[in-house]
Specification:
There is one protein chain. The chain has 222 residues and is an alpha/beta fold. It is built from 10 helices and 6 strands. It has a 6-stranded parallel β-sheet, sandwiched between helices.
Length: 222
C-alpha cells in the first residue's frame, strides 16, 4: 500500500529536493505541497494524506499551530516535524501539538523514507537529538493525572507497547488481537487521556512509570 505524503516547507528548493528523494521509493507518493501552515491545512483537508512532513518556521502560519489543527481535524493523518531548528521549545511544542515524529533537515534520504513509513505505521519517530530534549521533559515533575486510572487493562497494555515504539501490526501480533482492534484501543487511550498523538501518549506512559523513559520509542526504526 502506497503511503501518501504532503510536503510543507516555505522553501521551494527544499520541497523539490524532498520530492526527488521520496520518488526513489516505490512505497511513497508525494500527493501535494504547501508553503505555509495555512496552505498545509487546506491541502490536507482536500488530499487526506497519510503523512505530512511539516516545517516549523514558516510565514502566515507556523508548523506547530498547523500541526495542532491537522491532528484535531484529521486524526488519521500523522505529522512529522522536519526542521533545522533544534530547541527544547520547538521539540516539545511540536510533540504537544500532535506530531508523531521530529526529524532534522540533515536526515539522509534512507532514514527519511524509513521515518515516514514508521510514522504511517503509527510508530513514534524522533531524531536522537530531539529524543534527548523530550527525555528532559519526561523527567520534569508533573502532577499526577487521574485520567490514567480510567484505562482498562487492555488499554494499559496498548499504551505500554506504543510507548516502546511498536507499530499497530506489531502490537496486534504481540497481544493476539486484530490490527483494527489495536487502532480502536489507541483511539480510546488518546481520548481518555486527552492527548493528540502516540508520541504524547508515550511520554505520558513514561511520566506515570508505565515504561522506563529510556525505552520510549525503543522499538522504532531510527
Amino acid at each position: 500500500m502506497t503511503i501518501r505524503i504532503l510536503i510543507t516547507d516555505d522553501h521551494r528548493v527544499v520541497r523539490q529536493g524532498l520530492k526527488m528523494f521520496l520518488a526513489l521509493d516505490p512505497d511513497l507518493e508525494v500527493v501535494g505541497e504547501a508553503e505555509n501552515g495555512m496552505e498545509a491545512i487546506e491541502q490536507a483537508r482536500l488530499l487526506k494524506p497519510d503523512v505530512v512532513l511539516m516545517d516549523l518556521l514558516m510565514p502566515v502560519m507556523g508548523g506547530i499551530e498547523a500541526t495542532g489543527t491537522l491532528r484535531a481535524e484529521l486524526p488519521d493523518t500523522e505529522v512529522v516535524a522536519m526542521t533545522s531548528v533544534l530547541e527544547d521549545a520547538a521539540v516539545v511544542g511540536a510533540v504537544r501539538a500532535g506530531a508523531i515524529g521530529y526529524l532534522l533537515k540533515d536526515t539522509d534520504a534512507e532514514s527519511l523514507c524509513r521515518a515516514i513509513k514508521a510514522a504511517a505505521a503509527g510508530q513514534v519517530q524522533l531524531a536522537p537529538e530531539a529524543a534527548i530534549r523530550l527525555m528532559r521533559e519526561v523527567r520534569a515533575p508533573e502532577p499526577a493525572t487521574p485520567a490514567g486510572e480510567t484505562l482498562t487493562e487492555r488499554e494499559t497494555e496498548i499504551l505500554r507497547e506504543l510507548a516502546r515504539g511498536r507499530a499497530n501490526k506489531e502490537i496486534a501480533a504481540e497481544l493476539g488481537i486484530g490490527e483494527k482492534t489495536v487502532k480502536t484501543h489507541v483511539s480510546n487511550v488518546l481520548g481518555k487521556l486527552g492527548l493528540q498523538s502516540r508520541t504524547q501518549a508515550a511520554l505520558h506512559a513514561a511520566r506515570i512509570g508505565l515504561v522506563d523513559p529510556n525505552d520510549v520509542g525503543a522499538g522504532s526504526a531510527r
